[in-house]
Amino acid sequence: MKVYFRLLSFAKPIEKFAIPYFIYSILSVVFGLLNFTLLIPLFDILFKEESITAVNDIILTKPHFELNSQYFKDLFYYEFHRMVRDYGKMGALQFVCIVILASVFLSNLFRYLSQRIMESFRIHILLNMRKIVFDKVMGLHMGFFSNERKGDIMSRITGDVSGVMISISNTLLVFFKEPVTLIGYFVVLFMMSARLTVFTIFFIPASGLIISMIVKKLKAAAVESNVSQGVLFSILDEALSGLRVIKAFNAVEYIQTKFHNENLNYARIARSMVKRQELASPISEFMGVSVVAGILLYGGSLVLAKDPSLSASTFVAYIIIFSQVLRPAKAISSSFGSITSGVAAGERVLSLIDAPNDIVDKDNAIVINDFKNELEFENVSFSYGLKQVLSGISFKIPKGKTVALVGPSGGGKSTISDLIPRFYDPTSGEILIDGHNLKDCAIESIRAQMGIVSQESILFNDTILNNIAFGMPHASKDDVIQAAKVANAHNFIIGTENGYETFIGDRGVKLSGGQKQRLSIARAVLKNPPILILDEATSALDTESEKLVQQALSNLMQNRTSLVIAHRLSTIQNADEIIVVENGKIVERGSHADLIRQNGGLYFKLNMMQTI
Ligand code: ADP
Question: What is the value of pTM for the model shown?
Answer without folding.
Answer: 0.73
